[in-house]
Amino acid sequence: MYPFLALAGALGLLSVGFGAFSEHALQPRVDAESFRYLMTAIRYNQVHAVVLLALSLGLAAPIASDTWRRLRLAAWLMFAGTVLFSVSIYLSVMLGIPALTYFTPVGGVTLMLAWAAIIWAGWSAAR
Fold first, then answer.
1. Mean pLDDT calculated for residue range 10-39
2. Sequential DSSP letters for 51-89
3. Using CA of residue 46, residue 47, residue 48, residue 54, what is the dihedral sign?
4. Residue 63 contacts by C-beta under 8 Å, 6 or more apart in sequence?
5. Which of the two ends of the chain, N or C, has the fewest CB atoms closer than 10 A to its terminal CB?
6. Could you tell me the sign of the dihedral formed by the alpha carbons of 24, 26, 27, 29, in that order?
């Protein structure tokens, strides 16, 4: 499904751009622990951008409608979870607002639900 291809590209672009910004502009201005949080957010952003890319390609394949719907659910959850998880950390460190990290665990749970939806799609398609 093409919107997910574009969203995967946007997440990939965000991860590379924010990675460069973090290394060159933020690292000298933040403490080591905050920088470690940024690196975790960037890693999650990169990994899940690639997973969303794979899901978008899977959605373009000729698959059963039930499997397609489950993969689409997984893709939406993957996108939302990545944004909530990574962007909450990016903004928290960049703006110095620790309360923004309250969204981080919501993003983590959303990512776990996305992975569960992938399991559900695979399990039900194999039946």
1. 96
2. HHHHHHHHHTS---HHHHHHHHHHHHHHHHHHIIIIIHH
3. positive
4. 71, 125
5. C
6. positive
The whole-model pTM stands at: 0.93
Q: Report domain extents, the chain.
A: 2-122
The amino acid occupying position 89 is I
d(CA 77, CA 84): 10
User: pLDDT > 70: what percent of the chain?
Assistant: 98
Which of these, 127, 125, 114, 45, lies nearest to 73 by C-alpha position?
Answer: 114
C-alpha closest to that of 4 among 68, 88, 65, 84? 68
Q: Which two tokens stand for residue 14?
A: 């965000």
User: In 3D, which of 39, 124, 13, 10 has the Cα closest to residue 74?
Assistant: 124
